[in-house]
Amino acid sequence: MSKQVRVRFAPSPTGPLHIGGVRTALFNYLFAKKHNGTFILRIEDTDQNRYVEGAENYIVESLNWCHIPYDEGPGKNEKFGPYRQSERKHLYKEYADKLIATGNAYYAFDTAETLDFHRKDHEEKGKTFIYNWHNRLKLCNSLSLSAEETQAKLDAGEDYVIRFKSPQDETLHLTDIIRGNITIDTNILDDKVLFKSDGMPTYHLANIVDDHLMEITHVIRGEEWLPSLALHFQLYKAFGWEAPEFAHLPLILKPTGKGKLSKRDGDKLGFPVFPLAYKDHQTDEISRGYREDGYFPEAVVNFLAFLGWNPGSEQEIFSLQELVQAFDLSRVNKAGARFDPDKIKWFNHHYMQEQDNNVLAEQFQMLFPDALKDIDINYISMVIHLIKERATFVTDFWDLGHYFFETPTDLDEKAVKKAWKEESPELMKKLLSIISSIEDFTVENLQTEIKGWITSKEIGFGKVMMPLRLALVGALQGPEVFDIMYLIGKDESIRRIDNLINTLS
């Protein structure tokens, strides 16, 4: 690429960051890094009525947790700053005035009541009210008023907005990296408001001005902004600026594949739709987050990368660096991507196996402080080494391995029926004597002595190993029996076998 790639993620701080927003940020990040470019965070807070305190910090924390931090943005490498639109509002009026001066925009003084009247009137006639070329000369604006009348209203301090003057009878030929060529008839476009009566720009004006001033080369954003592409293209043309390249990402769909994924879907089906847990300060409602639910950021990123993109190979597991190398916008799909809660668990299970056992042990101990606070962290780490193959989350460790930390008090009824036979008490008593005689209590010695005894006496392995496992675990599950015995120790192993004999005899 001839230009230095510069992309931006531009969320609004109106609440928690949706997982779809994280994917948009991720694709921007991957594209930037693939081309040795810059990934920028810009906070689009022009809608002060919807601004939520703390939302910006939540966005930054989410990006950092996903290991996709921005290169430029609030408080970081601010050579094109400030990066909050509310701190740039002095810029936008100047550009709105330029559009008026060139005839590409105009003042509109229509009251909310007047516009509401026209909308209802059109609805009653089965039509849709559109403010554009076919009726703007009949409404109250600087196109229908004389220059003197317009100036008088401005001098009187009347409320106004500035609207873009969409052209009539033109055909726009646009290009989207993902969607290809797009043709639009300007006659169906409305004259969008660019500058509001509260002195703030709308998203349309602010984001075009900021993208130009920040030298953005590629705009990678969600499909919901595709209807705005025509206006944004025309604004670049009206200013005489070179437009960036556009790429509109497909929607993230519900698990059913029908409709856009929402928080309600997550609540209903039991999975998060936000990267981090979020507390609504008005309702005190706490929404679940992938971090707090026990997902690894690597799993979330790997999963999100495949929502609408494919590498053109069978490979599914990618490190972040591998994603950077493989990523290509030409391989992003147009069709919506179905969100699969089971698939992200599959990714999490994979990344669980790659985690350091000592780190997992510390996390496990923090989650179950009452049961594990006095247990050596190295012992916990050895337990995790044995059981994590079956785990998807750190919270699974207790169910998978609680018998390493406490003597089982309940026996699984089905396991008892299957494992405990008439000859079992006598066999377990003989087994106790074998175990008691083993001085060097290692996995290898246990295996050699016990299997040797079973073989020499021509006893079926199941007749010994099943009740032995039942004694140690309380059920017919868990890792290798000899590994369990080694970790809990000789005395505890003998005690548990003795307890089983006494309980079932």
Automatic annotation (TrEMBL):
Its main location: cytoplasm. A motif ('KMSKS' region) lies at residues 260-264. One of its GO terms (biological process) is glutamyl-tRNA aminoacylation. Keywords: Aminoacyl-tRNA synthetase, ATP-binding, Cytoplasm, Ligase, Nucleotide-binding, Protein biosynthesis. InterPro entries: aa-tRNA-synth_I_cd-bd, aa-tRNA-synth_I_codon-bd_sub2, aa-tRNA-synth_I_CS, aa_tRNA-synth_I_cd-bd_sf, Glu-tRNA-ligase_bac/mito, Glu/Gln-tRNA-synth, Glu/Gln-tRNA-synth_Ib_cat-dom, Glu_tRNA_lig_a-bdl. It catalyses: tRNA(Glu) + L-glutamate + ATP = L-glutamyl-tRNA(Glu) + AMP + diphosphate. Its EC number is 6.1.1.17. Residues 363-501 form the Aminoacyl-tRNA synthetase class I anticodon-binding domain. Residues 4-346 form the Glutamyl/glutaminyl-tRNA synthetase class Ib catalytic domain. GO terms for molecular function: ATP binding; glutamate-tRNA ligase activity; tRNA binding; zinc ion binding. ATP binds at K263. A motif ('HIGH' region) lies at residues 11-21. One of its GO terms (cellular component) is cytosol. It is found in: Cytoplasm. Catalyzes the attachment of glutamate to tRNA(Glu) in a two-step reaction: glutamate is first activated by ATP to form Glu-AMP and then transferred to the acceptor end of tRNA(Glu). Monomer. Belongs to the class-I aminoacyl-tRNA synthetase family. Glutamate--tRNA ligase type 1 subfamily. This is Glutamate--tRNA ligase. The lineage of its organism: Bacteria, Pseudomonadati, Bacteroidota, Flavobacteriia, Flavobacteriales.
